[in-house]
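Hello Y.,

Per our agreement to keep a running log of every chain we model this quarter, I'm adding this entry. I've kept the format consistent with earlier entries: sequence first, then predicted structure.
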Amino acid sequence: MLGQGLQQPRAAAASRGMQQGHLLLRSQWPALRPSRHSARCWCSAPVAAAETATQQEQQPAQQAKVEQRKRVLSGVQPTGKLHLGNYMGAIKNWVPLQDDYDTFFCVVDLHAITVQHDPKELRAATRNMAAAYLAAGIDPDKASIFVQSHVSAHAELAWLLECTTPMGWLQRMIQFKEKARKQGEDVRAGLLTYPVLMAADILLYGADLVPVGEDQKQHLELTRDIAERVNHLYGGKAWKKRGGRGGRVLKVPEPFIPPAGARIMSLQDGTAKMSKSAENDASRINLTDTASEIAAKVKRCKTDAVDGLEFGNPERPEASNLLTLYQLATGKNKDEVLAECGSMRWGAFKPLLADALVAHLEPIQARYNEAVNDQAYLDGVLARGAEAAAAVADRTLADVRDAMGFVPPIRRI
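Predicted structure for the entry above:
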């Protein structure tokens, strides 16, 4: 039984812990139970609609307001080792969003096969990434955590959008140009079209906001362009005249870029993004690194010969990057960091940074290890998240199919 041995009273304690920003071990995890997502019914049957209407009339105004919260979606590829750039630049910023938004966080495994991959490693990495979401503080009672390929609407909508997207739009993508230049004739078609899959991921859920790094802004702009193109070609009054709902087919999302930590840079090059695919493991702090490994990497990281530390000097990218890591690990603001460290030399600052990173990651690593070792619980979280995600995604896909003129599927009784 999923989550067996986890007692129901722990749910309230877990929820309180999450609201206060604490990370809980598995012994404190909430038991699997119907969430706010799984309780929703998207059925079109008259009885279900009547029941839903009755329930809505009985709900207080405050509950109705909660149901109208804006929606956020984001995800990370299960490739390579999860590192501080993924965590501090993305996943950590998702945690506060789950209290104020309707949140969907997916492991985008379909994106991981645009290059050659090992099937065994992909399967393990997918679960590990989901475990990292839990370890970082994503609460499955507040957010839907799921695997992209578990919701078939992602692949189908991607094809429909590909047939609407001009080739020139995709050929202008900077990341495709850079990777295609490196891969030469071995470059795969999926690398060209994966921004359309990314657009499908976002548009399926009618996301109002999409947490992205600076390097993903171009892809989000493409998503907005695709949505507007679909709305222009297939939506509006013409759709209504064809017997459809009419109006906008797809919601056009807005980017959400965190003010700090939006782009964590390499420990070996302050001008290059920290990357899972970098050959040099010393260029990143992995979330599973031991305390001694973290200390060694920080000790060997690239610095400069200037006395004192400062933010924002383009001539000192490593100083800005390492100070940002310290700021995010300690929770201090820039002024507090500079007051403490501004006059330090690298020899004094590096041990301080290493200790802060170890202390920050220790509870996350403990929760991650327990999540990875409880596959039944983890798979239960993913199954519940996929069910909630599919309920929303299938409605959007049905709208797009209808607007584009497809015959609705005949459902057998």
